[in-house]
Known about the structure:
Strand content: 5-15%
CATH topology of the largest domain: Aspartate Aminotransferase, domain 2
CATH architecture of the largest domain: 3-Layer(aba) Sandwich
Helix content: 25-40%
Mean pLDDT: 95
Strand order of the largest sheet: 1-7-6-5-4-2-3
Number of strands: 12
CATH superfamily of the largest domain: Type I PLP-dependent aspartate aminotransferase-like (Major domain)
Shape: globular
Low-confidence stretches: none
Amino acid sequence: xxxxxxARLSLRTLxxxxxxxxxxxxxxxxxxxxxxxxxxxxxxxGYRAGYVYGHTDNVSVQQAEHLIAALxxxxxxxxxxxxxxxxxxxxxxLEKPTHIIASQVMYWGFRSWLREIxxxxxxxxxxxxxxxxAVRAAVRPGETGLFWIETxxxxxxxxxxxxxxxxxxxxxxxxxxVDSTVATPIFTRPLALGADIVMHSATKYLNGHSDxxxxxxxxxxxxxxxxxxxxxxxxxxxxxxxxxxxxxxxGMRTLDVRVRAQAKSAASLVERLVGHPAVSTVLYxxxxxxxxxxxxxxxxxxGFGGMFSLRIGKGEKAxxxxxxxxxxxxxxxxxxxxxxxxxxxxxxxxxxxxxxGDLLRFSVGLEDADELYFDLTxxxxxxx
Length: 384
């Protein structure tokens, strides 16, 4: 599929047709899995086919990367063995000690790693990035080189104005990387808003079936940092394996229809849960009362995602009791799969977590929304 065709087609069509890829040998509409770890040299000892060794050169991985790049409107994309591998490689590839501004609320695993970033010579300032004045105040001229933004932020679902952050960052000669795992390219395309790199835990919505661990980076345009990231992925052995790349490609073909259905169900559930006597606060950017709703309306197109959180009025013990009483909602870490999940985040994140103890996080799957609502409200009765 050429660039002109890509430009005129919807994301749903690009994903469903996997950019029109097919098996050139059999004409099969599903590509085979290319598992070879090594490749034949030419008679003159060269590699005219372009493939040298499997840890960085693999057709199955590259096919999934091409689709992610197309969905994000990126110049190029790279796949990694996990979301953490993708995220940490960005920072490890920084050329010199750098001051980093990062969202105060984000995926706890990466936040924990950032808190120890000093061992690599970098410094980090955690800021509520929805507060643009606080972001401006955190900039250190000549030192700040990277902004790491997660929006919507997990698990409070605060919204950061990506375009405004990019203006602040670029004025300081800094780059912006956006963790857009929850929004997906279906609802937000950070590169179109000025971001330099977009990151996904591809384990979540991109794959959508809770059977792959993967991470992805996509870049607006090639540059020194991106080349170091690509080189470091090979040096550290961080690339995704072919079988998981094939599964990821299969999952992405239904990305558009999945996330739109999940967002629709989430919005329906949230509307009915507002005002529930056991719930003190409903956190969801699609609510008009959400502090970031106006920004979300500008930068999230067509939906507000399939994630929401509830704060339980009677506190932490009551929240844990609610999670213990559900049947359809599965008590498990992760998000973005076809099954609906519930989790008490504070007990997972541990000491230093910005997550309130009374909060429950919900990932809406593809089950019937009415049945999910009945199951949840029955469980909420123990917190009245």
